[in-house]
């Protein structure tokens, strides 16, 4: 007599099914057949005992019982599958990453970042080690956009950010305390002068002249930014 065993592992079931298609003499057990659970018995106990199928059920040409259960009749030695049959070569680390950055791409990106104008805050020299700042409104995303427009074979935004923060000591925002000390001084004087209108008018004129000079400097900075872009 043949033996019946429950095969729980999908990989083994697939192999047994392929064997069944090639050899119709191997079938599946019926609901009423006595079966063996592969987790509960050993191969030796299977070999010492025969298991009979109940007659009268649907069977194939050899009289083996068939049913809808995913239970495949097979000899005990067939269910002992050697590990080497399922060994798959480990290909981890064989192929290079699709987003790997070349030295040429890295050099091009660094050179492009160096072209952006920058300045050193007068109020952070002592604490920030001459921290450099990008112009107002300039962000890493905008810098990356300008970089991609000039380089068709550009790197990803994440790679661009990684190089930017690793290779450069640049800030994209102006410190809140980085205000004009001259403007503060003029405003304080104007508020404190209450009786002498002539002096107050002179201080106001000096303040306005200072604002015009600052506006000219800002326009020059924006012009330099456009040239660099």
Give a short overview:
With 229 residues, the protein is mainly alpha-helical.
Task: Please describe the structure with a list of short key phrases separated by commas or semicolons.
44% helix; elongated; 8 helices; mainly alpha; three-stranded mixed β-sheet; 6% strand
Strand proportion, as a percent range, falls in 5-15%
Percent helix among the residues? 40-55%
Count of all domains = 3
Structural class: mainly alpha
Q: Please describe the biggest sheet, giving its number of strands, its sense, and whether it closes into a barrel.
A: 3 strands, mixed
How would you state the average pLDDT, rounded? 67
Distance between the termini: 85 Å
The geometry reads as elongated
How many DSSP E strands? 6
In the sheet with the most strands, the strands line up as 2-1-3
- pLDDT below 50 for ≥5 consecutive residues: which ranges? 1-5, 26-43, 45-61, 63-79
Could you give the order of the helices and strands? EHEHEHEHEHHEHH
| Cα-based radius of gyration, to the nearest Å | 41 Å
Question: How are the SSEs placed, and which strands pair?
Answer:
Blueprint: E1 4-6, H1 10-22, E2 36-37, H2 43-47, E3 72-73, H3 103-114, E4 119-120, H4 125-128, E5 132-133, H5 140-150, H6 157-167, E6 170-171, H7 181-192, H8 197-228
Parallel strand pairs: 1-2, 5-6
Antiparallel strand pairs: 1-3, 4-5
Region (Disordered): 37-63
Biased composition (Basic and acidic residues): 44-55
